[in-house]
Amino acid sequence: MLNEINALRHVANVSGRFELVGRLDDALGMYEREERDEGVEAKEVKSKIDEYGRAYATGRRKESSARVWMIPTKEASGLLDQAKVEGEAAIPTSQVLINHLPLATHFEKTSDRDTVLRSLRITGLLSGYNVFALVRGGGTSGQAGAVGLAMARALAILREDVKEVLTAGMFINLLYQGMTDIQTAP
């Protein structure tokens, strides 16, 4: 009904019936958002860092959508800031939980796990962050792509220096996928 009234408002405006346009504006004004610009800006925010240093980002692929939180590991917090580590340091361990399940349990296929961890691998930060993700909709490959995209976005806001690496890595991945599609074509 509101869409029809809005269409009538447009017709009245085009036909020069400005008094009718004003009355239709008043009628539709009750149903419009008061602060329309702030609502649009809120939709555009897809990633942020909270007061505890956790990065939050979202990602979508096909019919899947994912929300990801990345937190630096305690063991790696010192290593991530240093340019060079002296001696034999213990390798920090990290966790990747997808819908409250370990990565290998949620994504059984190796290719899906590789898609999820791609951004951490190409930046060399594989064990530097704990990752918690909630993903819904679609199949496993779509969910893996959505989580991988959200992780790349979160990593980009956590570490400004990896944006170029992530962009180049994603370009190389797309190029590689295109080459394999050509090679497998009959």
**How many helical elements?**
8
The radius of gyration over CA amounts to: 23 Å
* SSE series: HHHEEEHEEHHEHH
User: What is the CATH architecture annotation of the largest domain?
Assistant: 2-Layer Sandwich
- Amount of helix: 40-55%
Tell how many strands the DSSP assignment holds: 6
Structural class computed from helices and strand pairing: alpha+beta
Termini separation comes to: 53 Å
For the sheet with most strands, the description reads: 6 strands, mixed
Annotation keywords:
disordered C terminus; six-stranded mixed beta sheet; 186 residues; single chain; 2 domains; 6 strands; alpha+beta; Ribosomal Protein S5, domain 2; 17% strand
Provide a brief overview of the structure.
By secondary structure, this protein is of the alpha+beta class. It is 53% helix and 17% strand.
